[in-house]
């Protein structure tokens, strides 16, 4: 179990200056928060990695399976884990969320690991390999000969990821269920999913938005009492023109918004619709825009559109030319700028700085770690009245130690925490911050923390620092 003092232990688990033998002692403690902090590090000594991979506690190995920062070589060692749940999780967690975007393909596991997992004795592991985005093409080809039809059905469900060779193999599979799954995916790809609505049955919003609807059903949905279904069908790319015109004047604002963001409309047609975006509602990028990300002409039209939904969606596409990146980086809509900062592989440094100062969310750390983030000159914020600006000062390597020391006494907790992590801080002040509840964890993660103090933390006793002179 974790105790009050363990906030310092958690900070120590993240400390890149902590030696391997101390990290091993942390790993031996009965505290999940400490385990997760250790297993989530971007770097680990080899002997600590060895201990994690071979650890008898499954939770520790599971936490390590989620760590995409550690690199494919070390993660791939779990491909030989004795527990099939760990091996399946290793593949399932191969999704780069909230990381710096890049146009260079990344592999969350080694090719050899994918090959071993594709031959795993457990069906559930091979199913995950068949489903996941980063599985190499030649490994998918191997799975067309998998002994389990269930694995081959999972392969068919990843249709959009498959090569023509693999698609042909599934369409000619000896198993009827596999052939039907492949034929269904092929038909949806070519013609759109066709659905019908029997009396008393329901249709999902997803089908209403994406499926090829018979006209009687499309008409019923366009006049449905549930505005969510009307909004879904209003976005359907195959909806007849007369129903589009009807929904464009729907009494519900969400329905009108869905119509206004349809593909194929001119700017004049969009402007003629009385739509508005709810600033408090989560925005999801338009599917049709994401599907056109490689179409430079379409992206230009979307990025230059007066409709915020189109610009927001275009900002998520990684192949935008420099002039559109510059344009969207200066967009008046905050969500446009945020999506560009989160998704573009080369976001402008000024955009990253502006977004970090405007937004506090789970991708902020990603932006601060981005190589384009402008670190030089941040010391100018040392006397800013805004704590969000003052806490960026340590990122500037040109900031003198005296400035870090001064700001470590700031009246804002987050500013003090930022200074507590900085190795330029004097040892005396660092120990004072280690003794304070609000800054203890941050100070314990400071790589300049003396090894003797790290050992005191592990032993549950830290000597009280001498008070600083007034």
TrEMBL record:
InterPro entries per the UniProt record, alphabetical: ARM-like, ARM-type_fold
Protein name per Swiss-Prot or TrEMBL: LRV domain-containing protein
Organism: Actinomadura alba
């Amino acid at each position: 179990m974790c105790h009050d003092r363990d906030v310092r232990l958690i900070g120590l688990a993240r400390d890149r200056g902590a030696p391997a033998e101390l990290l091993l002692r942390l790993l031996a403690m009965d505290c999940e928060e400490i385990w997760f902090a250790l297993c989530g590090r971007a770097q680990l000594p080899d002997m600590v990695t060895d201990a994690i991979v071979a650890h008898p506690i499954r939770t520790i190995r599971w936490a390590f399976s989620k760590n995409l920062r550690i690199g494919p070589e070390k993660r791939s060692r779990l491909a030989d884990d004795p527990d099939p749940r760990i091996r399946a999780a290793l593949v399932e967690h191969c999704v780069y969320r909230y990381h710096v975007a890049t146009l260079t393909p990344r592999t969350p596991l080694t090719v050899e690991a994918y090959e071993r997992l594709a031959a795993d004795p457990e069906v559930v592991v091979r199913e995950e390999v068949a489903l996941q985005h980063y599985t190499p093409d030649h490994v998918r080809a191997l799975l067309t000969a998998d002994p389990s039809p269930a694995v081959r059905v999972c392969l068919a469900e990843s249709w959009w990821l498959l090569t023509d060779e693999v698609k042909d193999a599934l369409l000619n599979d000896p198993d009827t269920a596999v052939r039907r799954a492949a034929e269904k995916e092929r038909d949806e790809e070519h013609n759109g999913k066709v659905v019908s609505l029997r009396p008393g049955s329901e249709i999902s919003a997803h089908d209403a938005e994406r499926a090829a609807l018979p006209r009687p059903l499309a008409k019923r949905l366009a006049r449905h009492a549930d505005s969510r279904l009307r909004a879904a069908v209003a976005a359907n790319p195959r909806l007849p023109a007369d129903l589009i015109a009807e929904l464009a004047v729907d009494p519900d604002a969400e329905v009108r918004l869905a119509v206004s963001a349809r593909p194929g409309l001119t700017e004049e047609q969009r402007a003629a619709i009385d739509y508005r975006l709810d600033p408090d509602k989560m925005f999801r990028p338009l599917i049709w825009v994401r599907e056109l990300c490689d179409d430079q002409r379409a992206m230009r039209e979307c990025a230059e559109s007066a409709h915020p939904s189109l610009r927001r969606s275009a900002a998520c596409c990684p192949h935008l030319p420099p002039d559109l990146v510059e344009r969207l980086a200066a967009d008046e809509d905050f969500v446009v700028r945020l999506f560009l900062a989160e998704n573009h592989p080369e976001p402008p440094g000024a955009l990253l700085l502006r977004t970090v100062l405007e937004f506090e969310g789970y991708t902020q750390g990603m932006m601060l770690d981005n190589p384009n983030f402008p670190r030089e000159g941040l010391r100018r914020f040392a006397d800013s009245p805004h704590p969000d600006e003052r806490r960026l000062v340590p990122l500037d390597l040109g900031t003198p130690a005296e400035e870090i020391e001064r700001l470590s006494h700031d009246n804002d907790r987050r500013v003090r925490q930022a200074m507590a992590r900085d190795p330029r801080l004097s040892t005396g002040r660092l120990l004072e911050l280690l003794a304070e509840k609000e800054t203890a964890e941050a100070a314990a993660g400071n790589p300049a923390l003396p090894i003797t103090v790290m050992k005191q933390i592990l032993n549950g006793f830290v000597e009280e620092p001498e008070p600083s002179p007034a």
